[in-house]
Specification:
Blueprint lengths: L5 H13 L4 H8 L3 H9 L20 H13 L5
Helix pairs in contact: 1-3, 2-3
Length: 80
């Protein structure tokens, strides 16, 4: 069975609820928790996804060392 989007899932839950299904039947049929079923009945649109917090780069602990090395390299005379 293909995965349905949250909007389609919410619509199916609301449709079945209008047809007289109890909350427990909705949960079992659609494989959701009572919170999801309640959210589907309260709002026709699901909540937007939360943005994850920015992650630190792998090089962050070494940036100071790299910068220091590059600055020292500026002072070295070049061989031509």
């Amino acid at each position: 069975m293909p995965q349905m989007s949250k909007v389609e899932l919410y619509a199916a839950i609301r449709h079945d609820h209008r047809g007289g299904m109890s909350m427990r039947e909705l949960e079992r049929k659609h494989g959701v928790t009572w919170r999801t079923a309640r959210k589907a009945l309260d709002s026709s649109w699901p909540e937007p996804r939360k943005k994850p917090p920015p992650r630190a780069a792998t090089l962050d602990p070494y940036k100071a060392v790299i910068d220091e090395t590059l600055r020292a390299d500026l002072d070295v005379s070049r061989l031509i």
